[in-house]
Amino acid sequence: MKTIKMKYGQGTLDVSVPEAGLLGVIEKNVAASPLPEEQVIRNALDHPIASPPLENLVRPGQTAAIVVSDVTRAWQRLPVYLPLLLQRLNDAGIPDQNIRLICALGYHRGLTREEHIRIIGEPLSKRFEILDHDCRDREQLKFLGTTKRGTPVWMNKTAMEADHLILTGACTYHPFVGFSGGKKSLLPGIAGFETIQANHRWVLGDSVGGGQRKEARNGNTADNPVHHDMMDAGALAHASFLVNVIIGPTGKIAHAVAGAWDKAHETACALIPDLYGVPIPELSDLTIASQGGFPKDIEFYQTGKAFYHALDSVKPGGTLIVLSECREGLGPLDANEMFTCFDGVADREGRVRQEFSVPGYVSCYMCTAAENYDIIAVTSLDPALLKRTKIRAVKTVEEAQALVAREKGPNLRTWLMPLGSTVLPIHTPKP
Known about the structure:
- With 431 residues, the chain is α/β, with parallel strands linked by helices.
- The chain has helices at residues 37-46, 54-57, 78-91, 113-120, 122-125, 157-161, 193-200, 225-237, 263-276, 304-310, 333-340, 345-354, 358-372, 397-408; strands spanning 2-8, 11-17, 22-25, 64-69, 99-104, 130-132, 141-146, 152-156, 164-170, 173-174, 178-179, 241-247, 253-259, 277-280, 284-290, 314-323, 374-378, 392-394, 414-417, 424-427.
- The strands form six sheets. A six-stranded parallel β-sheet has the order 3-19-15-16-17-18, with helices on both faces.
């Protein structure tokens, strides 16, 4: 037997599979810098891409708004690099009272004080309050114009009225934008509801039942309309600077970029396929994947990231066992609705087209995936919450494996994916 530990909530679960059927472990050892994390960030700030250094962009007494990610992305290591960014601003003559931190909630719920502390760390939380962006509050928004594809661009007013807008975040694969980080801090991060709706509808094909556009996929930006519309919207926001990190498998910062919001992020994106793409010679009968532990598995809809990645390793009609604790349940109300209020693909997709939201769409995708694959979730969720889907919920890995063995037999050709929401399998058959 081969046994490995996979993250689940704030702990791990042992996953054991027979050696006879094991295809291997899909993982990528992201080459970490030999330097301390803080030095990686300093080097990026010292050598910005397509931009002067931050301290040369700002003037004493000006104001700055810094966009930070929400608690579901607390793994991005803001407590490590945000103090270094703030120090550059302070040294350039911008005091703390002239700096606002804005949480890029997109559609997500507002955060608690404890969650704000988790995002930026205890020391910074004593210096700064975090403003939670609310996409539905028109009083918080400012209209900037319209994209080439007709998306009306509303952005957070506090961010837009600062002398300098600075974006932070992490770059990795994204299942329909191509890559996370960069422009996603703006849209959906601090955009208005109407803006997010109009932009994200580009993920769907032109006809009902057609599902996701083939161009809107992991790692693709060349002909991806969601990406290009986001870039048009981002250009209207006139961000001054960006810092994005790339996290290694140990959870620490492996690489960082800084500079112009578009060009620096483009540089980070170019690194991702080599860092996180893993060629595999064959598809599996069974893949066992972890969403990546807390906070990545805080809600079930977040597990859609592992679905998108891990299913690229599975034969059509094969089985995915996904480990995701989901201590906060299914997710926002629109995610709940997808799982609990509809019975079929057409009804779910019709609802998404009527009122698009990221949680609703991703949850719709997850339910649709379960129509084409056998999907079993190892989770703390009440199985009754998923009874209107074809996703089955169990409490232990052993229970999930026993189900698969009874239905499909032992010694299935199996891949293991410890970081299912991060690593992307790329099917590359041997010639």
